[in-house]
Structure prediction request, 448 residues.
Amino acid sequence: MPHTAEKQCLAYSVSLNKIRPEYDGQWQGIIAASDGACYFGSSTHSYRHGAGFFRFDPLSRQLSMLAEDMTGVCGEDLARTPPQGKIHSPIVEADGWLYFTTHLSNYWEEARNAFTGAHVLGYEMATGRFRDFGIVRPRYTIYSAINVDPVRQKLYVFSVPFASEDVENDGCHIYRIDIPTGEKQDLGRVVKGQTGSFWFFIDHKGDCWFTFWQMHGRCPEGGHGNLYRVVADTGAIERFENVLPDCQLAPDGEPLPEVEQERRCWSWAASLPGRQRCLFAMGHHSGEDERLWLFDPGKDIEAGEAFQPVGFIGPTFLPVALGKDRVFYIQRGDLVSARGWSAEGERDKDPATVPPEDLHLKSISLHPKAYGAVTDHGRLVDQDGRMPRHIDSLAADQEGRVYMVGSWHLLPGEAGTLQIAWDQPTREFHPVPRGQFFAYVDVSTDLG
Prediction:
């Protein structure tokens, strides 16, 4: 394993494959909750096992398994239906409850057709009780946005077709769920075909703001700098066309080509306290912009006054997290080499045949005295010398602790994650040269 004398960011990691070898990845599905613990999922691409759900106490370093397989929590039987294989959504909190959704494991056609549909779930932190709101739209997944209006006690989710018949004949819908009663309301189809929306921002008035992406070109209506709003009082969906800022590269603001500008959408978003404003980025697959932005819906959107840059952060995607007065993100140490590069596409290759990932934890300050200043906390390495290969799940608390789930290098003799051999008709499982780990770092001393 490569080693340099550069600054290191020391992580404490826990193997998830020792719990279940099929835990294979995690995208979103993590939160630093108000009780001081981190809650997170670990997903699979397995036809024989679903996602796990965990709690980690940073003070005791105690990892607790809350559910080994979410399929059972959803009241389904693996002998009859495909697993609920992923928690590929944000986890959001309100009134002592965490809310999140499931996603299918397997993408081959017969599995997509047999999938019962994504569930919306609640977890009460004080009691350990799950609540299943049920399937939102039969056979549809949720890919992947969920958020909560705590005042009106409503959940919003983004329902997406995956079976070919549904993709061809329908499209993506916004649903609103009444938390007290569990009643589900279809607010309508927002786009034909298949795409994704990763993040919702629900403002202090209860309006739900979102974008959706082109999903590698499969949804021509995605991107284009369009911003959408669900009006809380009426449920009407409005579109603001081509209003998102143009995309630029760090550090001097070089503009991106038009083909990238057409993909502008949120790759990450998070509400600021009070929910009057939110932060967002338009990174990988989403315009490739390299800035962190502030959105204030109370200002003129069409004139561009609602969007203000915080500062240049470089290439980003899903692993971005807001903690106190700072936004954290995972990125290669060398900003230029991080452009157009995906660790997920490299993580299953023999580590001896690919360059080291060189993943760092970085952050940008929101504090008035250092607003927009970027800190490189160092190259990530755990207590045993492992380094990460891919991370797309990140959370941060108010104490300078940052949590992550992802794929890490293995030490000699360690067993790798079990993954389906996708190119084999028998779809047998085989180990890949990486392991699935939860990890956290404490960078409070970096923050002063």
Helices lie at 70-73, 109-114, 164-169, 258-261, 444-447. The first helix runs from residue 70 to 73. The chain has a mean pLDDT of 94.
